[in-house]
Amino acid sequence: MLPTSQFIVPRLSLASCVRGIVVRSTMACDLSAEQRLNRYPATPFPTLFLQLRGESVMVDPWAPEMVCPQGGALLSGGQTRPTATGNPGATHFMMVLFFPDALHRLAGLDMNSIVDRFVPLEEVLGADWCGLAAHMVAAGDDQARVAMLEDFLEPRWRAARAGGAFDGVVGDWVHRLGAQAAAAGIGRSARMVERRIREWAGQPLRRLRRTYRAEQTFLAARDGKIPLGDAAQLGGYSDQSHMSREAREISGLSPAEILRRGLEDETYWIYRIWT
To answer: Which of 10, 144, 202, 251 can bridge 139 by disulfide, Cβ–Cβ 3.0-4.6 Å?
Structure first.
């Protein structure tokens, strides 16, 4: 039996709040220890991580290793470098990826405080979030878990975005974030704008732009729409070598290696399903 990996798009009303929901299951799969690794790129998206069955070990770059047991719930901030987790045995987990500025609005978190960290949920979010996580873990299937999540978030997100600050096109969320930070509050100097962006998203705007550009370029190349050289040009890179350097910073691999590993190496399954 093969592992199952799924990228779930949230309902439209949450499109500017949740980047996506990822589900991974290797239950009843005969995988080697090497195949039970999960390799992720650097990402700006904070993640609610629910360990539904089995356990996960945060392997790289954490020292000592951190274990999330069955039933555990963690919140990770944006990650500035590639990471890896492992599963000693069969596993089933769910990851809810938020736009960082949306989670900041929803939970009042300083997103800069959780960058490059995995934190037990109860240490950073309130009882209502912990209750949600517990109910999702106990739910009978992933469809029910997604419905619970969406029903929890929808009224809260409607209230958080009152006034239309998050309405409109959400594709280029980094551009939206920069515009909101420039327009918000008293003090619109470059330093104040950058401070707001770090509080809302945890990373500087320049890094967020690079990550967004790399993501869009990878998706275009992966889907076979254009060759890598053309993808580099359309993505605004000075040349293909420039694109390769940034890809290595984010994933540890060149663009060509990312495309190949996504197809051939089970540990890079996230690259195969990302949309």
So the answer is: 144
Do the Cβ atoms of 22 and 41 come closer than 8 Å? no
**Pair (151, 218) in one structural domain:** no
Backbone angles phi, psi at 28, to 5 degrees: 65, 20
Domain that holds residue 214: 208-273
Per-residue pLDDT reduced to its tens digit, 110-137: 999 999 999 999 999 999 999 999 999 9
Count CA atoms within 13 Å of residue 43 on its CB side.
20
Residue showing tokens 């707001």: 196
Is the Cβ–Cβ distance between 242 and 232 less than 8 Å?
A: yes
pLDDT tens profile 183-211: 776 556 778 888 888 899 999 999 999 99
Grouping H, G, I as helix, E, B as strand and the rest as coil, residue 159 is helix
Query: In what helix (H) or strand (E) does residue 142 lie, and over which residues does it extend?
Result: helix 142-160
Phi, psi of 51 (to 5 degrees): -90, 105
Residues 6+ apart with CB under 8 A from 56: 38, 49, 67, 68, 85, 86, 87, 91, 93
How many domains in the chain? 2
Residue 203 lies in a domain: no
- Residues sharing a CB contact under 8 Å with residue 20, sequence separation 6 or more, in sequence order: 7, 8, 9, 10, 97, 275
The answer to whether the pTM exceeds 0.90 is yes
CA separation, residue 104 to residues 96, 112, 164, 243, 275 (Å): 15, 10, 16, 31, 23
Q: What is the 3-state secondary structure (H, E, C) of 1-41?
A: CCCEEEEECCCHHHCCCEEEEEEEECCCCCCCCHHHEEEEC
Between CA 112 and CA 120, with CA 115 as vertex, the angle to 5 degrees is 110
- For residues 203 and 210, is the Cβ–Cβ distance under 8 A? no
| Among 160, 195, 228, residue at a domain's last position | 160
Domain co-membership, 217 together with 108: no
Helix (H, G, I), strand (E, B) or coil at 50: strand
